[in-house]
Task: structure prediction
Amino acid sequence: MARIISTKNTSKKDVIIKKAAFLFTKKGFASTSMRQLADHIGVEASSLYNHIGSKNELLQTICFKVANDFTTQLHQIAETDLSFTQKWEQIIRFHISMMLNHYEEVFVANHEWKQLEDPFLSNFLHQRKLYESRLVEWINAGIQKKEFRNIDPHVAVLTILSAVRGLEFWHRHKKNINTKKLESAMLDHLLFGLIKK
Amino acid sequence: MARIISTKNTSKKDVIIKKAAFLFTKKGFASTSMRQLADHIGVEASSLYNHIGSKNELLQTICFKVANDFTTQLHQIAETDLSFTQKWEQIIRFHISMMLNHYEEVFVANHEWKQLEDPFLSNFLHQRKLYESRLVEWINAGIQKKEFRNIDPHVAVLTILSAVRGLEFWHRHKKNINTKKLESAMLDHLLFGLIKK
DNA sequence: CCTACCGATCGGTAGG
DNA sequence: CCTACCGATCGGTAGG
Result:
């Protein structure tokens, strides 16, 4: 008789997806069963199928929601006439805030996308590749404008994206560090390095 | 009648572990069945149990081999009288070379340790925590000796370790970049940053 | 090393 | 929303 609690802004499907992201983060997609998911929500496993199509659909929904958020933000920043240093600062800050405010969904998109099935897998990888290509262009443009040091653009993108992704460990450690301070500290390291001049 | 091929330096167990690391990297631990593993090796699933104890034991072996390699190297570098800049350079280079030369094992240790069961899970996390604490000390000491800028040491360790971990994407993209060049480029970014002075 | 097999659990459906 | 159930697959064992 238990019912999934939904509100005006949060459908029952949303509740299921949110809980799924939590469990997929904690135990992994493959190791999370629909029965466990149902238990955490308070219904029987079969009841979930009134709101969702399949277990795989849950993963697809999470992965593409995250991917679209990043793509949208990239395009918004690209349209501005900010310097490339400023564009990079904006996108790094966005990555950090996504990591801190939508931790579970981002974690699932980062770690469990492999479990997607075609055509979703191909689409996801394609979208990510386009995203990274655009970021490489931003590095190249910044080098040409003499904003950046003359570094390898692919390595730079890789280094920055990976560093920001590492915030998932931070989240796990549950350090109650000031968010703004963390953003500034990481940005500072990535832009200015470790070594004293 | 098929038999696992072993040599003087590579036991049958080693062959199984190597193939397991490959499959765990490609599909994840939970999504890899013992039957798939046996197929890739060329025997029946039940035959594997003549050489190994369980599926979980495979994961434990891989995770702790990697953890021990890193811990050993850390202690060796710690014993030298190198400057902290040089110590950091050494450990970053070691991380990069582990990533490039033992990709699959490192990947499994980085991504699938969650599937370990206690007491292995606790041990693994404890070992990792000690490792990171030592690295934080290296940053603090470098700041005191005026080698490093006055940055947040935890953020610095997180940033560096995460960036290096990102090399797994590089490996996946199969770019045939010069290894030494890649090492230098990433080291350069982490030590000196992006921005031109 | 294989054949034969076990109990447990999986994602999902039928029907109400 | 639940009960009852399906076929498939899982990790692992017995016995040779």
Notes: Chain B has a mean pLDDT of 92. Residues 169 and 175 of chain B are 10 Å apart (CA to CA). The two ends of chain B are 67 Å apart (CA to CA). Chain B touches chain A through 46 residues (CB under 8 Å).
